[in-house]
Amino acid sequence: MEFLEASNFIEEIITEDLKNGKFNYVQTRFPPEPNGYLHIGHAKAIVINFEIAKKFDGKCNLRFDDTNPTKENLDYINSIIEDVKWLGYDFGDKVYYASDYFGQMYELAIALIKQGKAYVCHQSPEEIRLLRGTLTQPGIKSPYRSRSIEENLELFEKMKNGEFEEGECVLRAKIDMSHPNLNMRDPVMYRIIKTPHHRTEDKWCIYPTYDWAHGLEDSIEKVTHSLCTLEFEDHRVLYDWFLDQLGVFHPRQIEFARLNITHTVLSKRKLLYLAQNNYVNGWDDPRMPTIKGLRRRGFTSDIIKDFIQKIGVTKSNSTIDYALLDHCAREELNKKAKRAMVVQDPIKLIIENYPEDKIDYVEASNNPEDNSFGKRLVSFSKELFIERSDFAIEPPKGFRRLFVGQEVRLVFAYYVVCTGYEKDDNGNVTTVWCTYDPNSKGGWTSDGRKVKGTIHWVNAKDCTDVELRMYDKLFLKENPEETDERNDFIANLNPNSLIIKDAKAEKSLLEAKDFENFQFLRLGYFCKDIDSAQDHIIFNKTVDLKDSYSKILKKS
Q1: Whether domain 345-456 has CATH 2.40.240.10
Q2: Interval 157-183 mean pLDDT
Q3: b vs e for 460-494, b when ≥16 Cβ sit within 10 Å of the residue's Cβ?
Q4: CB-based contact 207:69 (threshold 8 Å)
Q5: DSSP 36-70
Q6: At what angle do helices 301-311 and 40-55 cross, to 10 degrees?
Q7: What CA–CA distance (Å, rounded) separates 407 from 385?
Q8: One of 199, 252, 268, 507 is an active-site residue; which one?
Q9: Is 258 a catalytic residue?
Q10: How far is the C-alpha of 229 from the C-alpha of 256, rounded, in Å?
Q11: Tens-digit pLDDT profile for residues 500-521
């Protein structure tokens, strides 16, 4: 194997392991629990595991840690599989499950009991917690800790056979109740859960805890490098203890910093609270940091992967500015999004000297960054819609758009000069009048004159009505979890995180596909929402055109 030049500390460790013969291949895994939908923090773990496996010509398993049937379901599993595929990763023909190994785990637990290193304990969960001790005080040994091997084997079998009720007893490892790491103080290995499993149904009524199962799954699958976030660092000594006592294949665990983003929560519990209590419209709400929510908002898999590449892989926790994710979106969408014209706050523009029934067509670029996108023809007539903000009765200094006597360019079309306007009974402008230069089509004039203002428009005679969903950050504070008692993070919700506007759009957007990305000229980047109907087309705002993060980069 050719050893690749390392670009982060994980790759440096793997490169060294291959060089010194600790392993002669690389295998990683992405091990989600199927008890919720994936979010962008999970996307970081997905990208790291799959990209590292790819870089070292290895393999990455998709494996579900399905050890708690009370919180898991097939909808989560199918969603996770779909999300991993959408991100562009191939995990082969097989999906792995912890439940595939329940039989092996049970036999390994028996082996530990036979070594005198596990016992059945009849303390309640509350007693186990209270007697565990603290960082400064040792725990108190369970009165059941001295049971004989024979008695423990008999009781464990009765647990498996359903002869005890939930919570009546557990299987615990016998390690050290005074160990400085609380995870080593006789941790629970099995608990009784009389809930049918989505794959094994009623076969089991005892289920392995995450700490007992996780390292064994990696070992059984011959994972070489078990890549985890930093909260598992204190658990590593326990995983190592289990594997060493059993004498089985021993993966190497490496921890990296989890992803934290400003104005966002990435706790499954809190995201579930938001969805269940209707603070958002489900798990795929475009304000949610779930992969499904980000996709629906218009973020592509390339945007998310570019973002994760830019933040890098580190050992230290930090919080990433959400503006960087927006910056990555602009960079990607500027290159790959089609252009279109939409007027979000329309007023009528009437061209006095344009023929009444004439329909003209002007040529518009689909993406000036890439000529391969080609051009489209946009219809033009006597009556157009323009943005209300593009006209002023009393223009401020430096105003380059329309006011009486001012000439501007209608993008892709003609030069027009404002001649007047009309107001309704409330004093609101309803119509702007102008004349056009018929020799200025495409923005070129025979006398070579130029104007400083350019505005967009749509043809009032064949435009289509669309709904714009203008999304902003879900939370006002950079750290929404500053106050966390009784879900106080809800107090930090942004009341203007969603504003809905009715708009006028050029006719070509009738052909837009679900999730298709567009730059609406001067408005921002949008994508077509999956709830759209033929008579009700919806576009979700992905990100503004203005890039605040580029200023941060320049300052740094």
Answers
A1: yes
A2: 97
A3: beebbebbbbbbebbbebeebbeeeeeeebeebbb
A4: yes
A5: S--BHHHHHHHHHHHHHHHHTT-EEEEEE----TT
A6: 80
A7: 17
A8: 268
A9: yes
A10: 5
A11: 999 999 999 999 999 999 999 9
Gap between the Cα atoms of 296 and 288, Å rounded: 10
Nearest to 244 by CA among 146, 108, 132: 108
Contacts of 255 by beta carbon, 8 Å cutoff, 6+ apart: 227, 228, 229, 230, 232, 233, 236, 315
Task: Name which of 244, 111, 109, 104 is nearest 187 in CA terms.
Answer: 109
> Backbone phi, then psi, for 490, in 5-degree steps?
-60, -30
The gap from C-alpha 509 to its chain's centroid, in whole angstroms, comes to 27
Angle between helices 102-114 and 210-220 (to 10 degrees): 110
Pairwise pLDDT comparison (444 vs 276), residue with the higher score:
276
pLDDT classification of 463: cutoffs 50, 70, 90: very high
State the maximum Cα–Cα separation within the chain, in Å, rounded to a whole number.
Answer: 103
The predicted-structure confidence for 480-493, as pLDDT tens digits, reads as follows 887 655 558 899 99
d(CA 391, CA 341): 17
Task: Report domain extents, the chain.
Answer: 9-256, 261-338+466-555, 345-456
Query: For residue 364, what is the DSSP state?
Result: E
Please, what sign has the CA dihedral across residues 92, 95, 100, 104? positive
Q: Is the pTM of this model over 0.85?
A: yes
What's the DSSP call for residue 442?
Answer: G
What CATH class has 261-338+466-555? mainly beta
Q: Please tell me the CATH superfamily of domain 9-256, with its number.
A: HUPs (3.40.50.620)
- pLDDT tops 70 at residue 199: yes
Rounded to 10 degrees, the C-alpha dihedral 358/363/367/368 comes to: -130
3-state secondary structure of 545: coil
Average pLDDT over residues 368-378: 94
Distance CA 387, CA 133 (A): 67
- Which of 258, 388, 400, 461 is the catalytic position? 258
- CA 490 – CA 144 distance, rounded (Å): 44
DSSP state for residue 499 in the 8-state scheme:
E
- Which amino acid, 135? L
Give the Cα separation of 343 and 256 in Å (integer): 46
Find where tokens 């070489």 sit. Answer: 224
